[in-house]
Automatic annotation (TrEMBL):
<dbReference type="Pfam" id="PF08240">
    <property type="entry name" value="ADH_N"/>
</dbReference>
<dbReference type="InterPro" id="IPR013149">
    <property type="entry name" value="ADH-like_C"/>
</dbReference>
<protein>
    <submittedName>
        <fullName>NADPH2:quinone reductase</fullName>
        <ecNumber>1.6.5.5</ecNumber>
    </submittedName>
</protein>
<dbReference type="InterPro" id="IPR047618">
    <property type="entry name" value="QOR-like"/>
</dbReference>
<dbReference type="GO" id="GO:0005829">
    <property type="term" value="C:cytosol"/>
</dbReference>
<dbReference type="InterPro" id="IPR002364">
    <property type="entry name" value="Quin_OxRdtase/zeta-crystal_CS"/>
</dbReference>
<dbReference type="InterPro" id="IPR011032">
    <property type="entry name" value="GroES-like_sf"/>
</dbReference>
<dbReference type="InterPro" id="IPR036291">
    <property type="entry name" value="NAD(P)-bd_dom_sf"/>
</dbReference>
<dbReference type="InterPro" id="IPR013154">
    <property type="entry name" value="ADH-like_N"/>
</dbReference>
<keyword id="KW-0560">Oxidoreductase</keyword>
<dbReference type="GO" id="GO:0035925">
    <property type="term" value="F:mRNA 3'-UTR AU-rich region binding"/>
</dbReference>
<dbReference type="InterPro" id="IPR020843">
    <property type="entry name" value="ER"/>
</dbReference>
<dbReference type="GO" id="GO:0070402">
    <property type="term" value="F:NADPH binding"/>
</dbReference>
<dbReference type="GO" id="GO:0003960">
    <property type="term" value="F:quinone reductase (NADPH) activity"/>
</dbReference>
<feature type="domain" description="Enoyl reductase (ER)">
    <location>
        <begin position="10"/>
        <end position="321"/>
    </location>
</feature>
<keyword id="KW-0521">NADP</keyword>
<dbReference type="GO" id="GO:0008270">
    <property type="term" value="F:zinc ion binding"/>
</dbReference>
Length: 323
């Protein structure tokens, strides 16, 4: 089969499109013939070596959807021919992938394979942020950085559906229009404006109870100045670079704040939590309350260019690759 492998950590040029043996499922695993592959910023972290793979070379990718074509010993929850999707797999930049069955969900008829691959990782991230990290309530005003990104466009729609007033930051006028179309009541161009001052202006000086930040270095520590007392700074990514170590005393000085660095994989570590979170995601998408924006499609063979566009923050919404 064809796959994208990384033999040495590096830039997009480190991604090699090559033939590799088709994997065989072991006990508790299933093999999936993939029809759609999700692309996420975490893939860049692994390709560059910011996150380490267990060994080199390795196949990139965490997210995808397709059809079960082989079962490992002991698998009883899935059958050959069923449509499935996953957000915590290893090696999805390939025509076929072997996945632990405990990390796989059935895809309902109301959701296409392409939509499932586009939304599993980003949609489940939005789910835990809005429903677990800080449970958004009607009447809340929230701040979401990178509101036109893959997670942002899902989360802002969902937050609006929950009854929140949504403030979003973006990096360009084009992205500002997109953010408004997907639920943002107020959009701030964070490169051109003092976003903390604008948030205080919008909220009448009160600040917001939560800041969801997938940007990192470029928006910290100013994000803390957006929070009301006892507010939560939820850092779930670092597209502009990692936040450097800081004096925890700053949280006291700025209003007894909370700071957390959650990750999706903790939230879907059990069969029960994965099924419950995915069911909630599928429900809001199937109802039409949240639409999954797929703004780019590419062939697996062109994955290096996809990474260049993503790293350059030239993309909006979601990119899906096909084998």
């Amino acid at each position: 089969m064809k796959a994208i492998r990384v033999h040495a950590y590096g830039g997009p040029e480190a991604m090699v499109y090559e033939d590799v043996p088709s994997p065989e499922p072991g006990p508790g695993q299933i093999r999936v013939r993939q029809t759609a592959i999700g692309v996420n910023f975490i893939d860049i972290y692994f390709r560059s070596g910011a996150y380490k793979a267990p060994s080199l070379p390795f196949i990139l990718g965490k997210e995808g959807a397709g059809v079960v074509d082989a079962l490992g010993e002991g698998v009883t929850d899935f059958r050959v021919g069923e449509r499935v999707a996953y957000a915590g797999a290893t090696g999805t930049y390939a025509e076929e992938v072997v996945v632990d069955s405990k990390g796989v969900v059935h895809v309902p008829d109301s959701i296409s394979d392409e939509t499932a691959a586009a939304m599993m990782l980003k949609g489940l991230t939005a789910q835990y942020l809005l429903r677990r990290t800080y449970r958004v309530q009607p009447g809340d005003t929230i701040l979401f950085h990178a509101a036109a990104g893959g997670v942002g466009l899902i989360a802002t729609q969902w937050a609006k559906h929950l009854g929140a007033t949504v403030i979003g930051t973006v990096g360009s006028q084009e992205k500002a229009e997109l953010a408004r179309e997907h639920g943002c009541d107020h959009v701030i161009l964070y490169r051109d404006e003092d976003f903390a001052a604008r948030v205080k202006e919008i909220t009448g000086g009160k600040g917001v109870p939560v800041v969801y930040d997938g940007v990192g270095k470029a928006t910290f520590p100013a994000s803390l100045d957006c929070l009301s007392p006892f507010g939560i700074f939820a850092s779930f990514g670092s597209s502009s670079g990692a936040i450097e170590a800081f004096d925890i005393g700053i949280l006291a000085a700025k209003g007894s704040l909370y700071a957390t660095r959650p990750t999706l994989f903790t939230h879907i570590a059990t069969r029960e939590s994965l099924d419950a979170n995915a069911a909630e995601l599928f429900e809001v998408v199937a109802s039409g309350a949240v639409k999954i924006p797929i703004h780019a499609r590419a062939k697996l063979a062109d994955a290096a260019q996809v990474h260049r566009d993503l790293a350059g923050r030239q993309t909006t919404g979601t990119t899906v690759m096909t084998p």
